Amino acid sequence: MPKGEEAVKVLGVWASPFVMRARIALNMKSVKYEFLQENLGSKSQLLLQSNPVHKKVPVLIHEHKPVCESLIIVEYVDQVFSSGPSILPSDPYDRAIARFWAAYLDDKWYPTLKAMAGAKGEKEIKVVIQQVEEGLALLEDAYNKISKGKPFFAGDRIGYLDIAFGCFLGWTRVTETVTGTALIDEFKTPGLAKWAEKFCEDDAVKPVMPETKKLVEFFHVIRAKFGGSA
């Protein structure tokens, strides 16, 4: 086992897109790790001790030291493990742009996507769908500019922004299924449609990308218990 890989653990929930980020990053670096499944209804003592501030997943534990927040974990993995390709862009400007869009996804686009599945009334649903689609139009434009004609945001292989956005593809499909609305497709967002297909086929992604059917079932269970999605 390469130096630095000892005692790598991930605390998480299989359906969480944020947990998926950490797992994809570790897979890209070919780092072996132990996945510790958390129970949404009863958080483990290890989770509470490892992330006492937010008390949420994911948490990466490396050599008994916890690292919290999904994008921070991705950057940590990229910096600590030299095996595998670089995840963040090497150019400072490209790195700043990738972080900008990753923050947009977390702060604005994904919360709107979650709201879409829970929207009630024709007017509210229409407004939220419009907001999600406007966001996707911005992301389509960003993809076309950043990828420069290559398959991924990062170029020839997946990178930081691909992970930041790609982790939401499963829940995007759930939203499409639950609402009956196509969001990422070859007509509305042709670039993102091709990107999404290639992303899900990547060897670092396939083992941790949940099946849509299982996610839909999970969605209904979570909504019944807690009144929301992952």
The helix/strand order is EHEHEEHHHHHHH
In terms of structural class, how would the helical and strand content be classed?
Answer: alpha+beta
Query: How are the strands of the largest sheet arranged?
Result: 2-1-3-4
- Continuous helix count: 9
Q: How does the major sheet shape up?
A: 4 strands, mixed
- How many DSSP-defined strands? 4
Unreliable runs, pLDDT <50, ≥5 residues?
none
Terminal Cα separation, in Å? 34 Å
The shape, in one word, is globular
**Helical coverage, percent range:** 55-70%
Tell me the strand percentage band. Answer: 5-15%
User: Rg, please?
Assistant: 18 Å
Overall pLDDT metric: 94
Describe this structure in words.
With 230 residues, the protein is of the alpha+beta class. 55% of the residues lie in helices and 7% in strands. It contains 9 helices and 4 strands. The protein has a 4-stranded mixed sheet with strand order 2-1-3-4, covered by helices on one side. Helix 4 (92-118) runs antiparallel to helix 5, helix 4 (92-118) runs parallel beside helix 7 (169-179) and helix 7 (169-179) packs across helix 9. The longest helix is centred in the middle third of the chain and has 27 residues, at 92-118.
